[in-house]
Amino acid sequence: MTDLTPIDRPVVAVHALPSPYLLFLGDVTEPGFAKTAFGLRDWAGDRCIGEHALPSATVTTGLERLTPAEAAARGARAMVIGIANQGGVIPSSWMPELLAAIEAGLDLVAGMHRRLGEIAPLREAAARRGVRLHDLRVPPADLPVATGRKRLGRRLLTVGTDCALGKKYTALAIARGLAARGVDATFRASGQTGIMIVGRGIAIDAVIADFAAGAAELLSPDAPPDHLDVIEGQGSLFHPAYAPVSLALLHGSQPDTFVVCHQPGRKGILGTPGYPVPSIEAVIEQTVLAGRLTNPAIRCVGISLNTGGMTDEAAADVLAETAARLGLPAADPIRGGDAFERLLDACQG
Prior knowledge:
Elements: E1 13-14, E2 21-24, H1 35-43, E3 48-52, H2 68-73, E4 78-81, H3 95-103, E5 107-110, H4 120-129, E6 133-135, E7 154-160, H5 167-180, E8 185-188, H6 192-198, E9 200-201, H7 209-219, E10 228-231, H8 243-253, E11 257-262, H9 280-291, E12 299-305, H10 312-326, E13 330-331, H11 337-348
Parallel strand pairs: 2-3, 2-4, 4-5, 5-6, 7-10, 7-11, 8-10, 11-12, 12-13
Antiparallel strand pairs: 1-9
Helix pairs in contact: 1-6, 3-4, 7-8
């Protein structure tokens, strides 16, 4: 078993998405809100043929700019909404481009709270053109209330000081790195982008609150004692809007270990003026206090730093300082190297 080959589990939503993809960036101006597009570019790049955006967009994935018709002519089969904006909305300004994609013969794929199938012009155009609308933020039916029962197997959860700073990348990298060492490790997707990458999972933030921890239990069921589920974290316990999602995922996943993800230099919580980013130490303390409810033995095993945009020297300095200050391995999984191998050692143990 590899990190990206999930254990068969019928209850978890499975999605067979047509590819290659054209990534739609809408009118995004904040890179953090384009995390779906970046995640697909970085972890499913072989399925991405180009990008498309409105003239007002200032964010780019670096892929070739193509119109839906041009992408279809080159073999694209779907246009993916690569935005994860606040509230998961689909603004009216996107509609001409979404309709153009349908008319070009492309399926539409989205992980928004506003579902494509609920928008009459899109639904009617898709039916007329004979293409499909894929809504990924739809949880499985008949989810249970959490039991709190301790499950067999091992679990690691990535948690963050904020949103959109590397929890998914860290979980993917750890699962892949451990699998390369021969560890029976599997990435578990808890958000729309992770689901797009591996083809299955549960978007925890789309689940009714009473059932969110139960969904997290289903995401990582009983497993052999040596199996490790590496669970993609969501939000932050310190985010004024998304902390409930983070808490439900923490309680339901019952992690034995966790890795804190942080972006050095980020001062404020994304999209929420007036709320500062907490310290790594505060996140460790809060995660342990809350996590003990369903796993009294929970512990932090390392730190993942998003050092994108930093020089190699500056990144090495902040990694070394963080590791020395906390007495835990600190690494940037994208940079890899010896620091990441030490983090994998801690996650494996």
